[in-house]
Each structure stands twice: as C-alpha cells, then as structure tokens.
Specification:
This protein is of the alpha/beta class. The protein folds into two domains: about 1-30; about 35-240, TIM Barrel. The chain contains eight helices and eight strands; from the N terminus they run αβαβααβαβαββαβαβ. It has helices spanning about 5-25, 60-70, 80-85, 85-95, 115-135, 150-155, 175-195, 215-230; strands at about 45-55, 75-80, 100, 140, 160, 165-170, 200-205, 235. Strands 1, 2, 3, 6, 7 and 8 form a six-stranded parallel sheet that branches. It starts with a helix and ends in a 7-residue tail after the last strand.
Length: about 240
C-alpha cells in the first residue's frame, strides 16, 4: 500500500469512526450527550415495564389483564393516531393505574425533522391523549430513541420529560418469546451489575398498523412478572424516577 493510499484509508477510517460516534449520540438510548433524559433510578430491585406503539386493540386489553393479575404497574408510550382510533382503550390503561406517555402522532425519525415538524408531532399526540384521558401528559419517548438537542428542548418547553431505556427486548424481530426473554434477561443482568434499575423497552403495538400481533410480548410479560414476584423485584412506572 502506498503512503498516499494509507493516508486516505486512515482519513476514511476516522470519518467512519466519527459517523459512528455521532450515530450513537443521536440513537444510543443511554447517551446523554445530546441532553439529559430519564432512564432509571439507582435501586436494582426496581424495574419499569414500558410498552411503545399502542394502544393496540389486538393485545393491549390482554396485557392489561396480565398486569392486573400481578398487581403490576407499567408505562405505555402511545401513538396519537392510534389513540384517536381507540380512545376508550387509552382510558382503560389510565384507569388501571398505569403511566401514559407521548410517542408522537405518527412515529417519525424526529432527529431528521425540522423543529416545526417536531413540535407538531408532540403537540398532536398531546392533544389526542389529553382529549381522550382528560389529564396532562408528563412523559415522552422519541420513536427509535432518536433525538437531538432541539428535540429535547422542545419537549421541555411542552412540559415533557424525555424517557429512554436501558434494556431492550427487540420484540419487533421474529425471535420468539425465548429470544425476547434472553435479550431482557441480559439487559437486567447488566443493570444489576451497575447498581441501576431496569427500564425495559417492549411493544404492545406497531407504528405500521393497528391490530399487530404482539402475543410473544404478552407471553414474555407474564414470565417476567412471575420472575419479579419470585426475586423481590418491584415493577414501577417511570414516574418513580422523575
């Protein structure tokens, strides 16, 4: 390899590394470089089950029944357009004592959108939730976890606390309940070793369509709740942390 070729390769490598680092700051759930977000507390016995992309008429009602059977509280980040389709289901989630948060109106990649679009997405979802529930919304989770400083600033201006996660089930992939559970257990082990609570990202819906099958997530939730009861872990809403 010539000196010039080696130098070019080095520049390309540095550029690729910089791009990778930038992607992490925007998309890495635990990164705080773009601005502070709520993730979890410092009690490793506390665990937050969080569900994105609902409400979903195919799974959310059954999920509420499973949570109620274990007297467990969870957090649901809802898409505005689905709340408009099923406001009574959103009200049922609230009536069961769960935390409900904003997950935008249409689930876009917000870090690529203008400030005007970001504000519209958050305001429209707030409107859908507050019309359905009759209460103010306090929490927001950006779709895909993607963010930039302007997004976090707009959320704060709207009175929203941005919430990320530190455990990911990857339940949108065709990996079955065993694969989802393995992902969650690895993540919870990391949190315990770090002396942190676990904020588990799961999905009771899909941004693509209503009535998505999330039966694998439902099965995993039942298994996790049994495990929590046996090990002394305490399911909490994200409002336990801020």
């Amino acid at each position: 390899m010539s000196t010039a070729t080696a130098a070019l390769a080095g520049v390309v490598g540095l550029a690729a590394g910089a791009a990778s680092a930038l992607a992490y700051t925007a998309l890495g759930a635990g990164s705080q470089i773009m601005g502070p977000t709520l993730i979890a507390g410092n009690d490793p016995l506390q665990v937050a089950l969080t569900y994105d992309d609902g409400p979903n008429d195919a799974i959310t009602p059954a999920l509420l029944d499973v949570l109620a059977a274990h007297n467990a509280r969870a957090t649901f980040f809802m898409i505005g357009r689905f709340v408009r389709q099923h406001p009574a289901l959103a009200r049922r989630v609230l009536a069961a004592g769960h935390v409900i948060g904003n997950h935008t109106e249409t689930h876009p990649w917000l870090h690529l959108k203008s400030e005007a679009v970001i504000r519209t997405e958050l305001l429209a979802c707030n409107e859908a939730l507050e019309d359905a529930l009759g209460v103010c919304v306090r929490y927001f989770r950006p779709p895909h976890g993607a963010r930039r400083p302007a997004l976090l600033r707009i959320a704060r201006e709207l009175g929203l606390t941005t919430v990320q996660w530190n455990v990911m089930g990857k339940d949108w992939k065709p990996i079955g309940p065993e694969g989802i559970l393995a992902n969650v257990e690895r993540g919870m082990d990391r949190c315990r070793r770090a002396g942190r609570g676990a904020n588990i990202l799961l999905h009771d819906g899909s941004d693509l369509a209503m009535s998505t099958d999330r039966s694998d997530t439902l099965a995993v939730t039942g298994h996790l709740l049994q495990r929590f009861a046996a090990t002394g872990m305490r399911p909490v809403g994200v409002d336990a942390w801020g």
